[in-house]
Fold this sequence. Notes:
The protein is an alpha/beta fold. Helices cover 40% and strands 19% of the residues.
Amino acid sequence: xxxxxxxxxxxxxxxxxxxxxxxxxxxxxxxxxxxxxxxxxxxxxxxxxxxxxxxxxxxxxxxxxxxxxxxxxxxxxxxxxxxxxxxxxxxxxxxxxxxxxxxxxxxxxxxxxxxxxxxxxxxxxxxxxxxxxxxxxxxxxxxxxxxxxxxxxxxxxxxxxxxxxxxxxxxxxxxxxxxxxxxxxxxxxxxxxxxxxxxxxxxxxxxxxxxxxxxxxxxxxxxxxxxxxxxxxxxxxxxxxxxxxxxxxxxxxxxxxxxxxxxxxxxxxxxxxxxxxxxxxxxxxxxxxxxxxxxxxxxxxxxxxxxxxxxxxxxxxxxxxxxxxxxxxxxxxxxxxxxxxxxxxxxxxxxxxxxxxxxxxxxxxxxxxxxxxxxxxxxxxxxxxxxxxxxxxxxxxxxxxxxxxxxxxxxxxxxxxxxxxxxxxxxxxxxxxxxxxxxxxxxxxxxxxxxxxxxxxxxxxxxxxxxxxxxxxxxxxxxxxxxxxxxxxxxxxxxxxxxxxxxxxxxxxxxxxxxxxxxxxxxxxxxxxxxxxxxxxxxxx
Length: 541
Ligand code: NAD
């Protein structure tokens, strides 16, 4: 920025549209869904601003109608990944020198494209690819992605404004350089917003990126690519490759120019990636930055003073929206015995009213889980719970994969606080509840802290302020996002920066300045105005 200290628009959260019957947004998204569902899309790789097709393709089908094909996508071979690396490094020469206001302009434009002309398309693609209801698609692929793009621009300028002290004879300046080399974004299926944010926030800070989306999010990834292209992201800055994750990763991590991993997904994959980086560490020109947001086993603790209806609503929304496939989804509950009867009654009543099916039918609150492997895993845990003496299924328990991967919202009550579904991340619509004696509240908090390897989200529900205070202290390290009297899901960019520690990740808080700081390497420049000409200090006499 040579000629002005430019201000960026103050970031505001994108309002969530209602999609109420008769609303124009509902008509628009239904029309778009219908067109995309009945059409056939072909999704190539995107390298150096060009669409690249390969001989190897796979079909794409919606999880709620797995025999129906909505298109194909192309799988990269090793040479495509090598091309992407070479092209990114070439693009870096110009992009890393691009004044920040132009980078900001591109991504602010991307936000407005999603808010306007691409809104119905990105929502419909997310409904089809990931089987989200319109509400879940809207809060993710439209609003959250728009928020990431807008707030990151603001955070970038706040970082740039952070400058050291200077004196009259020396001026100290920090410039926030992008990382040397290229970066790698690996994204999960479950949030279109995360898929868009991981590559774009690194590019915003001046980095060049190779982005590998999940094979189960390709349709909405394609819309993100289209938006970035229309917004003016130059060729080579963000390159997209699909396909064999291990081959792509090995090729990328073999490059001495690999300088950063921005990952969201399961814990085991992340640990594997970290090991690969460790094994190659002597080959890199710079120490790669590693950011990973991973699994969760998120909890709701209800004290005897909690309102039973509020707890039931937190369970139904927190555990079953998007079929429990949010990393923050509640999946273990610790409920005081004296209120459990009422909580249980309300949960069962609510679940009886919930409809399950395709997101195209907007009466449905629950749709399908992402793929057959997930369906089978969940069905196995449910079957096991049916057999186990220390577990009782109090709601749901049915499943059917004949048309789509449908699992009924299921609540397991267990007498064993270490029952497998209290400890393991299932990533589906299964909530397990352990009922504790009211007098054992303190002991239960210890149990919550010690039960799982994860520390992503959690909630305490109570009206007694002493109980809230005790839980807040006892669970200090049990969750990176801690909620008081709310469900543990639904973090909003700019309001609740998101991420957890322990096995849940590096806690670099997506949607905050902290995350962006990982994608820059500051250079201090000291300029001395009157340079000394005599080496002797006064003490030398
Ligand atoms: P996943 O681990 O199956 O896949 C994540 C990404 O890793 C995908 O792009 C996948 O293709 C890639 N991958 C898989 N195997 C790989 C390999 N061997 N080498 C390199 N890359 C590989 O996860 P998912 O099913 O897409 O997403 C669900 C998981 O993500 C859950 O564990 C959830 O908790 C987690 N998640 C965490 C957060 C968070 O912020 N903490 C947010 C969303 C999702």
